[in-house]
Amino acid sequence: MKNTDIQIIAAIKQLLYNDKLNIAIVPHEHPDGDAIGSAIGLAEVLDSFGHKAQIVSPTDYPNFLKWFTAKTEITVFSRNNKLGKEILNQSDVLFCLDFNEVGRAGKMEKLLLDYTKPKILIDHHPYPTNFCDFIISETHYSSTAELIYDVLCKLGMKKYITKSAAEAFYTGILTDTGSFNHNTSDPNTFKVVSELMKFGIDTPKIQSGVYHNFSISRMQLLGYCLNQKMIVLPDFRTAYIAISKKELENYNFKTGDTEGFVNFPLSIENIVFSAIFIEKDGVIKVSFRSKGNFPVNHFSHDNFNGGGHLNAAGGETNITLEETISKFTQLLPAYKHQLLETVI
User: Fold this and answer.
1) Contacts of 159 (CB under 8 A, 6+ apart)
2) What are the pLDDT digits (tens) for 143-200?
3) CATH numbers and ranges of domains, the chain
């Protein structure tokens, strides 16, 4: 870990080794595989150590991430905010995982800001904000799950990692690298994966659970998007998909159904930049992916109130879907030289 002061690790270790604690763990809203895998894995290890860890997710998470063997229960705040508040109020320590800006906690933002006991942030996204007492921010990691594994080793807790925790961490790494297709330039990623496999986790089962566990309506929505909604702009080596709220309703949309859609256009020959625009209530959610060295994190940060990693980022707008698409296409000429020069 390049950016974390040894004193921060020492302080967290002293905190966790002092007494048996009630610990709350919060991932970001609309959690993906890394957020949920990190939260479940950490909770399992803390429980194994002797603490009582509970996860409060701001919103629900995809059904294809509900197969974990871990026994840790996840309270969804948007469905049961009373219980979510009780868990935070009764906790002695709060972990914030896989986000570094408090707004990413959605309707739990004020609760996190008002939390007066020790708050620990563990995240791998750039530009962390200062809303926690202890910040572990390492942007060169493939995923928060990989980072947490190394943090636990630094804390002397490796022996408390269980098979179910290893399964959750592996899932986090698998999903945030797109099945090891990006964010894998650091050998440490594969070192951690090899260590996790020593716990006897069933990697084919995990792969199947994540990527071969979709509903019929989700597959039909994907087909519709690729056939009817994908726009290819070869002059800019770019492709995008835009989906309205009505179109989502037509395909019985459930949380997580569009996960991974943004990656498909990158399979087209000579396409290096892909985007997806999804209309939600009052907001357009945007995801970007790229190949080579085209920095979608900078593109998102500069134009769509977002950020992320070199090849994977997200953002949002408060304008209409049509206005968002227009803005995106009008931006492309300014990036044309960079897109054309991208080496893949």
Assistant:
1) none
2) 999 999 999 999 999 999 999 999 999 999 999 998 998 888 899 999 999 999 999 9
3) 6-211 (3.90.1640.10), 216-341 (3.10.310.30)
